[in-house]
Amino acid sequence: MTLTSFGPANRIQRSAETHPLTWRLRDDGEAVWLDEYQAKNGYAAARKAFADMDQDAIVQTVKDAGLKGRGGAGFPTGVKWGLMPKDESINIRYLLCNADEMEPNTWKDRMLMEQLPHLLIEGMLISARALKTYRGYIFLRGEYTTAAKHLNRAVEEAKAAGLLGKNILGSGFDFELFVHTGAGRYICGEETALINSLEGRRANPRSKPPFPAAVGVWGKPTCVNNVETLCNVPAIIADGVDWYKSLARDGSEDMGTKLMGFSGKVKNPGLWELPFGVTGRELFEDYAGGMRDGYKLKAWQPGGAGTGFLLPEHLDAQMYAGGIAKVGTRMGTGLAMAVDDSVNMVSLLRNMEQFFARESCGFCTPCRDGLPWSVKLLMAIEQGRGQPGDIETLLGLVNFLGPGKTFCAHAPGAVEPLGSAIKYFRPEFEAGIAPASAAVPPLAKPITVGA
């Protein structure tokens, strides 16, 4: 799997006007350090924000641009920023970057942090200015060792250049930034579990309300944004709302561009910056090159392991939240996976649910007990030992673990692919149900209570 935003040479001509996230990337895949980043107009947006805009203007610009979270939930970023308290007496606030990218089949943030670390730092600097936060943390997946090394080097470069630390750009504004590597838990992608982990606590999600904007890390107002979300901020400030909105395709309700990808047995697996509103077919055929010779597309997930499966007939859906919702699932992270015709869906789902069951924090009963239950049932069906009624039990779990019925969104995301797989590929599940005569072996002798 290559970490690239390059596609077929005749398809992509990256420029600042069309590819705000990736136009600075080097062709050799090496990181863009401070001198080169500034030569490519880096930190110009930060200088504009500090010199010409007050905090409210920055927040309003991001809100007007329609920027939404790129971590999977899609909450409007400007609205989230607007939840931070306006009370000037609260002088300790935090900005957290959620870089705990542990969604299976997702690696977009890794590319940005490894190859464009200063883009993330600039995005956080502008965001800190808007939110009046004096300290920031990049909460990084512990396995991303190269990203950690590159981010730490970029932070030191920015400090030496007066772009982090005290009195930034002569404005009187102070902002410190730290890279914090986690211990490797999927649940840390949930913002309040991330906050608990940063504080040194067990990574359980917190009750909401209060929301982090009111009571976050160490009890102070806190804003948590995803890596890709923060990396969009400099271009919005530098080039304006109308330009940013113009990047999306007609019909898309989401603005700007998105890092999208395709993995699986496709000819050209990779990662590309594309406008919201491209179709799944364009992504699959024009960029990923379709299936490798000898394989057929059986199903696909549009945005990570926690999104429902779709069929080849759904490839004409537009890749934005509302477009994917029309065919019954979620946009998620925007990195799709192709399932080829050699894959048994029961085995694939058993593997997925094992991951989700292992990564549950164990806090609430539906998730703690329901996900392992689904694994046991799927394992039995996979081995041809399924009992009559097991499929109905699995569908019951999909309902019981659905949105609004668990403490956080972990379980609903875990069972969404399970429900869709049964919907589209039920015969494969039925094939693992043992005949009724063999399902329950007869008792050797009747059991008498008290015998």
Automatic annotation (TrEMBL):
It holds the Pfam family NADH_4Fe-4S. Residues 346-391 form the NADH-ubiquinone oxidoreductase 51kDa subunit iron-sulphur binding domain. The keyword Iron applies. Its EC number is 7.1.1.-. It catalyses: a quinone + NADH + 5 H(+)(in) = a quinol + NAD(+) + 4 H(+)(out). Its cofactor is [4Fe-4S] cluster; FMN. Signal peptide: none annotated. It comes from the Bacteria. The keyword Translocase applies. One of its GO terms (molecular function) is NAD binding. Belongs to the complex I 51 kDa subunit family. Composed of 13 different subunits. Subunits NuoCD, E, F, and G constitute the peripheral sector of the complex. This is NADH-quinone oxidoreductase subunit F. It comes from Pseudomonas fluorescens.
